[in-house]
Amino acid sequence: MTDRPWTHLGAAVRRRVVTLVLVLAALFGLAAPAAAERVLPVRRHEGRITVVAERGLDSTADRLLASSGKRLALIEADLPGLPRPDHVEIRVVDDAADMQAVAPDGRRVPAWAAGVAFPDLGVLIVARTRGGQVIDVGETLAHELAHLALGAAVGARAPRWLHEGFAYQHSADWSWDRTETLAQMAWAGNIQPLDELERTFPAAELPAQRAYAQSYDFVGFLAKRGRWEDREDDGDRWPFRRFLGQLAAGADLDSAARAAFGRPLEALYQEWREDLRRRFFLLPAGVFAFLLWAVSAVLLVLAWRRRRRQNRERLARWELEEAEAMARRAERERELALLAQLQTVPPAPPRWMN
Q1: What residue segments make up the domains of the chain, in order of their start?
Q2: pLDDT of residue 158
Q3: Which fold has domain 1-172?
């Protein structure tokens, strides 16, 4: 099936339609799920996963249903033996501006978000476009599914930074902007302390980018760290999985970190800060070395081409000189032959005498 005319309506028109449906639902005493069913009439179901979508998003719903089961299984491999979500409801809208209209009652959607998860409800919302730009809705779905899976496994014991970092581990959400943000934080030394990160996780988009970047990188560091402080040992993710398992069993963050990594969380955070500085302080040197290598390579190529040109010119000059020498020899040989002929032929006798 293909996406139909509803998707071509303006965002403002769709918002008015969605708002009207919700108002009518409230007036007639309908429950929020019933309102969502009317706003999201496309419905697909398989196993524990249900996809509901706006009219015209049939093909998107089919695609997300087909991929969500495999994605969820890969995520749950990081949570072995822990509780899983019994049911997952994926709500799909065409434009991110419409997500708030289909959010569960009393829940807020960040203005800049392209997807949002409500782990305690087993509900997530993803958008196909944002501000007129098409979004990779599959990767957004993977990110939000990771939030649901971690919420089901660990519950409220997982802080926001851990949620965001874990979700990043399971989605191709890398961006150059985020790398640039981390580099600026490392160079300027304005990395937020861990105890402040959770309390002040910002609601505005720009500071949220910094908080997300910091959370993503720190959790990535934990996921790759082995039991011991050895950069060559990633532990095959088992220390990280044990850390999550300890949280699920009721341990606090520090106790879980000690059990999994042998160090308190703050010490691990300081390890990460040093690792971040090392990576990004070495980056300029690496870039300089690369540029030096590139310039050297260009100079070598130019020198090689110059040498080839000089060799061609030298060969051409030698060939010309050889041709001129041969021409001179040939001319000299002709002159000598003519002179020899004149010297060997006797003069003819006179034909008459006086």
Answers
A1: 1-172
A2: 94
A3: Glutaredoxin (3.40.30)
Q: Mapped to the 3 state alphabet, what secondary structure does 101-156 carry? A: HHCCCCCCCCCCCCEEEECCCCEEEEEEEECCEECCHHHHHHHHHHHHHHHHHHHH
In DSSP notation, 32-92 reads HHHHHHHH--EEEEETTEEEEE-TT-HHHHHHHHHHHHHHHHHHHTTSTTS---S-EEEEE
Query: How many whole angstroms from its chain centre is CA 83?
Result: 29
Question: Phi and psi for 253 in degrees, rounded to 5?
Answer: -60, -45
| Per-residue model confidence (pLDDT) at position 89 | 98
> Which residues 6+ apart lie within 8 Å of 19 measured at CB?
101
Count other C-beta atoms under 10 Å from residue 319's C-beta: 10
Residue 133 and residue 350: Cα distance in Å, rounded?
A: 114
CB 272 within 8 A of CB 217: yes
How many angstroms separate the first and last alpha carbons of the chain? 129
pLDDT single digits (tens) 126-164:
999 998 899 999 999 999 999 999 999 999 999 999 999
Cβ contact 186:280 at 8 Å: yes
Q: Using an 8 Å Cβ cutoff, are 2 and 59 in contact?
A: yes
Residue 339 — φ and ψ, nearest 5°?
-65, -40
Q: How far apart are alpha carbons 256 and 265 in whole angstroms?
A: 8
pLDDT of residue 285: 46
Q: Which residue has the higher pLDDT, 248 or 341?
A: 248
DSSP state of 93: E
Say whether pLDDT at 45 is over 80.
Answer: yes
pTM confidence score: 0.68
